[in-house]
Amino acid sequence: MAAAVAEVSAQLGKSLLKFCSGDLGPEGVLPDTHLLDPLLQEASTAPLAEAPGKGMDDRLFYIYTSGTTGLPKAAIVVHSR
Question: What letter would DSSP give residue 48?
Fold first, then answer.
């Protein structure tokens, strides 16, 4: 999907972080994309001392859809889903 993301990358904004994972060639990684696999290998596997204060009804992430009216819309996905 690198080509699709590259097409809209300028419209996504600079504050949006992009990650990729898997066996990718240089043509499959956008210049401002973080490689997820090395980050995961470096991450601690120790459990958190205290769980973050989030509940099952709190937002987990957004999925942006094309929208039927022409403008993109964010579908909110909560932890319980």
Answer: P
Q: 34-65 b/e with 16+ CB inside 10 Å = b?
A: eeeeeeeeeeeeeeeeeeeeeeeeeeeeeeee
Q: Can you tell me the distance from the alpha carbon of 49 to that of 47, in angstroms, rounded to the nearest whole number?
A: 6
Give Cα separations from 17 to 6, 30, 46, 49 (angstroms): 13, 12, 25, 26
Q: What is the pLDDT of residues 38-64, one digit of tens each?
A: 899 999 888 877 767 778 888 888 888
| Domain region containing 9 | 2-78
| Domains identified in the chain, total number | 1
Comparing C-alpha atoms, which of 28, 26, 27, 30 is closest to residue 17?
Answer: 30
Please indicate, yes or no, whether the overall pTM of this predicted structure exceeds 0.70: no
